[in-house]
Amino acid sequence: MEYVTGIRETKEKELDELMSGALSGQEVSVKGAVHVIRDMGEISFVILRKSRGTLQCLFKKERFSEIRMHEGMTVRVTGILNPESRAPGGFELEATEAEILSAPAPDTAMPLPIGKWKMNTSLETRLSLRPISLRNLRERAVFKIQEGIVRGFRDFLYQEHFTEIRTPKIVAGNAEGGANVFRLEYFGKKAFLAQSPQFYKQMMVGVYDRVFETGPVFRAEKHNTVRHLNEYTSLDFEMGYIESFRDIMDMEAAMLQYVLEFLKREYAKELSMLSVSLPSASRIPSVRFDEAKRLVSEKYNRNIRSPYDLEPEEEMLIGRYFKEEYDSDFVFVTHYPSRKRPFYAMDDPEDKRYTLSFDLLLGGLEITTGGQRIHSYEEQVKKMKDRGMDPAEFEDYLMIHKYGMPPHGGLGIGLERLTMKLLGEGNVRETAMFPRDVTRLEP
After folding, report:
1. pLDDT of residue 378
2. In contact, 102 and 73? CB cutoff 8 Å
3. Which of 246, 331, 349, 432 has CB atoms 3.0–4.6 Å from 322's, for a disulfide?
4. pLDDT (tens digit, 9 = 90+) per residue, 136-152?
């Protein structure tokens, strides 16, 4: 009889321990993938790829004449760990033993030069070969930073007494309205992929007061732009007992401040690798929608073509204006027109043409949409009817209003867009591990 009692200690060391210096001069073992081989004649430098970085191993040909290393192999290497200022991390493993754990298929060459800092291949090629291109150190750094954004988001909201929830992604109704939904056949019934967790996070405010979720959302929009994906990760939170929609903006600003400091502290290596200088969120300007349009129209001599929406060029100019005038990369644009907001958005009681809602722009691109929701049953039913909607089709959702909800509001943040803007990438597909757009369903 054997018992499983937990993680067993292994003799192989991880990179952080190796680079700490505590094992300098000692014999150690390490497992990793062969990332790059530099053959210098009598010696070879084999760079092993680990989850947190790389380790340089020195192989002397006289000792390892029987072993032929290839990129893509996974190996176990044992040797003496020595200080070496020219090696990544300042340490080098002088190999005394090596064991091949696995090898690529015979006669298989690496399809991309993943050992180079920049692979100098097209984005389409990198996306088609995504399982391989993601092994590149630069590509990996992007998604480690993205990991840090999610970690910081979660950590901050836990501290602010939010409860993490998980909502269904196969739904019977369409939260946002419109036709941009993926339809499914669900055991003979009509179903959709969720456009957002909106209805469910509002429901859960009535349970936990403050809730959040990180998860996929799906938009069947036939866009083919550098800013749109058909599946992306949304960082959502919803909070009750608010005094104003500005409470949501305050919470987001505080969250961003926390996340940016968290990245600087916990992901400094990756930020340095990518030469990223993070923006400040300490003081974020706020401007009304109509005022923002007027300001950029006057400063940049641009006619206002659509009074009810922001065109991408206008978003870019608003970002430029607040960078030039206030040295801010972020700007809240508030009071969007009611006709451009969903039916659950609360109208401004002082002017019902506008809503108590906002977008947050970063570098001239919308990364967040949020605002205050209608919590009154009568008001919600009336707004539905005013829009030609049948309240009977939303019976489950209206249950929360019918049986009492506090004043509440929330937001959703596009994780890939936020990552793209923080890292200065030019295409949102660069910051999606396996992007889904109008043309791409694989790998």
Report:
1. 97
2. yes
3. 331
4. 999 999 999 999 999 99
Pick from 374, 339, 343: nearest CA to 242 = 374
Using CA atoms, how far residue 27 sits from 11, 20, 50, 424, in Å, is: 10, 15, 19, 42
CA separation for the pair 405, 418 (Å, rounded): 31
The two tokens of residue 1 are 């009889």
The confidence score (pLDDT) of residue 211 equals: 98
Which among 8, 7, 29, 32 has a CA at the least distance from the CA of 18? 29
pTM score: 0.94
* Rounded Cα distance, 126 and 433, in Å: 11
Phi, psi (deg, nearest 5) at residue 197: -90, 20
Cβ(194)–Cβ(231) below 8 Å:
no
Closest by Cα among 199, 170, 173, 166 to 187:
170
Contacts 24+ apart (CB under 8 A), 310-318: 310/359, 310/366, 312/227, 315/361, 315/364, 315/365, 315/366, 316/364, 316/365, 317/364, 318/287, 318/292, 318/361, 318/364
Q: What is the mean pLDDT of the chain?
A: 94
50, 137 contact by CB (below 8 A):
no
Burial of 216 per CB tally in 10 Å (0-12, 13-18, 19+):
middle
| Three-class HEC string of 184-222 | EEECCEEEEECCCCHHHHHHHHHHHCEEEEEEEEECCCC
Count CB neighbours of 288 within 10 A.
16
Tens of pLDDT, residue by residue over 357-409, are 999 999 999 999 999 999 999 999 999 999 999 999 899 999 999 999 999 99
Q: Pick from 285, 284, 286, 281: which is nearest to 257 by CA?
A: 281
Joined tokens for residue 281: 């969120």
Containing H/E element for 80?
Answer: strand 74-83
Q: Give the phi and the psi of residue 391 in degrees, each rounded to 5.
A: -55, -25
Tell me which amino acid residue 222 is. Answer: K
* Whether residue 178 has pLDDT greater than 90: no
Distance CA 103, CA 111 (A): 15
Taking the C-alpha atoms of residue 421 and residue 323, their distance in angstroms, rounded to an integer, is 14
